[in-house]
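Ticket #386: bound-state structure for adenosine-5'-diphosphate.
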Amino acid sequence: MNTLPAKQLTPKSNRRIYLGVMSGTSLDGIDIVAVSFEPDFKMLSSASYDIPSDIKDLILALCLPGDNEIEKMGHLDVALAQLYAKYCNQLIDDNTNIFSRCDVCAIGLHGQTIRHRPLNDPLHNFSLQIGDANTVAELTGITTIADFRRRDLAAGGQGAPLVPAFHQSLFSHISNDRVIVNIGGMANITLLAKDNTQPLIGFDTGPGNVLLDAWINKCQEKAYDLGGAWAHTGTVNKPLLKQLLTLPYFQQDYPKSTGREQFNLSWLQQQLSEYTGLSDVDIQCTLVELTAITICDQVSRQAFSMAQLFVCGGGAKNSFLMERLDALLPDAAIVTSTKALNLAPDWVEASAFAWLAKQTLAGLNGNCMTVTGAKGERVLGAIYQP
Ligand SMILES: Nc1ncnc2c1ncn2[C@@H]1O[C@H](COP(=O)(O)OP(=O)(O)O)[C@@H](O)[C@H]1O
Ligand SMILES: [Mg+2]
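RESOLUTION: The complex was predicted; output attached.
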């Protein structure tokens, strides 16, 4: 069990440090960064920690309707929080040469999404992230900010994506149009026009890695296709691709966001029911193409096909997927990862939640109404004092 860490009362850094904690749809790990924003953005430390397999199973079980959900959720809410707190404490303890616990002003905690239902009926709009922030504040002794999405939903927004405002603050450029593509379990794009009077646009394009992981896991019991090497040996099946692309979500206008409710293995298996003769590898290759096409189509539709495109999230490490993005956007000025912008792709989303915590603590807005569709900009999340 966690015990309350010893207080470190002497500041070690002259910067105000924020931790960002991100555990996304993919369940590949819990990413934590320690960053500061003033005078400029600086990454002090980062690490990715394991999610034990029993916790992973509990999360997956709660992502779809099932039995006894309240009991299960209550238990997992605290168990996950204990894990988040343990890893935050570990990151701090591993970096005492750089900063001290008392230099950390806040933890920005995304939590684990178990349901995301941004439907158009306001009575059914909800998004649920668990990992009790009371427990995290208690076990770390640090102000913890969580529950970022629901205020935006309450204001009529999708509650997602929330990363575009951070992308804008860090990555926009006065002489280049830029696209930031976050390829996690789902994929979302942020369109940063060089003309900063243009409204910020950002939305989920559809699946990122989630179907790729689900399919290789089913066929080969692997968590993911390293570098996209397996998919690379396959061939795109055009009829299947065409069928997958008929899903209305892909044609829907933004604002829009999606999750495991829509894109999951059983949905994929339904889609495959008439393709019994297809080889497993061709299906994997077709799924890579689906992720790539749905991203690139939207980039082109929004007139950003000549922009610079920077990819973050685990998808940036899938070289085959990166190759396909490059091929589908022949006019793009560059297609590369956010490493080229001095922030490694693994740490962008966790940094965004550290930034959102900073915004909340300062009483500043975190959402962007042109992205989520909310009635207005809002201070997001709730503050849990230590
Ligand atoms: N070396 C790699 N090659 C191919 N895919 C990778 C690699 N590393 C990570 N990924 C993919 O990225 C996913 C994790 O991406 P991440 O951005 O953390 O998503 P999430 O936010 O959903 O957790 C993994 O599940 C895997 O599909
Ligand atoms: Mg992840």
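RESOLUTION NOTES: The pocket of adenosine-5'-diphosphate (ligand 1) is lined by residues 24-26, 28, 184-185, 209, 212-213, 224-228, 313-315, 317-318, 349 (CB under 6 Å).
TICKET STATUS: resolved
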